[in-house]
Amino acid sequence: MLQAGVLVMIAGYADAIGFLQHRAFAGQMTGNTILLAISMVETSWAEAAFYVAVIASFLAGVVIAGGLVRLGHAPAIALSLAAVSLAICAFVTVHWGALLLAFAMGAQNGALTRFGDATLNTVFITGDLQKLFEAVLAWLRQSSSRQPPPGFAILAPVWLEYFVGALLGALAHAALAYPLLVPAALLPFVLFGRPGKKA
User: What is the dihedral of CA 116, 117, 121, 126, to 10 degrees?
Assistant: First the structure.
């Protein structure tokens, strides 16, 4: 599905920008957890507090966006909240930018995880890759079935979409003064034409 692919590319783009501009990942909390541990070992307490704040900002985005959707608001509302956060990132200090960027990616992931017959995290892809290969292995064991596993069309290209997004993010970081305005402009319109409110 095109919408899922665009969201995954936005996440790769934001993660590349986050690392290049802020030395923190926008959506990969595994990476931020590792950076937190390294900071603690090096007794860089201010840096450790920064990574704790980034992780907390991501979780706040997940909770707020997920809460909006559970209260019956369209996922596009939560994506618009993420878009506003991305736009503000372009004009604030490095530390505030990192927090807003993580919040935006948490909100994106909390807004929408269901695409057709597949559940997909659009911000971090390790679990998506695991689900894909588990589904493919189960499908191969059922030799009688010629249909691809459920969600295959969405899960199969997810790594490549994330990679392309990260590549575009790195290029935009080098070429544009305000590279985060690009995904900020796209996010509110990703779900245009999507039927219903269900995430």
Answer: -140
pTM score, whole prediction: 0.85
Average pLDDT, the chain: 87
The tens digit of pLDDT for each residue in 9-34 reads 999 999 999 999 989 999 999 999 99
Q: How far apart are the C-alpha atoms of 91 and 89, rounded to whole Å?
A: 5
Given a cut of 60, whether residue 116 has pLDDT beyond it is yes
> Which pLDDT score, from 0 to 100, does residue 178 have?
93
For residues 133 and 155, is the Cβ–Cβ distance under 8 A?
Answer: no
For residue 77, CA distances in Å to 112, 147, 196 come to 11, 35, 13
Token readout for 147 is 């249909």
E strand spans, 13-70: none
Rounded Cα distance, 61 and 65, in Å: 6
Instruction: Identify the residue whose tokens are 């996010």.
Output: 187
| Residue 14 Cα distances to 2, 18, 31, 47, 154, angstroms | 18, 6, 14, 21, 20
172 or 124: whose pLDDT is higher? 172
User: Phi and psi at residue 115, in whole multiples of 5°?
Assistant: -130, 105
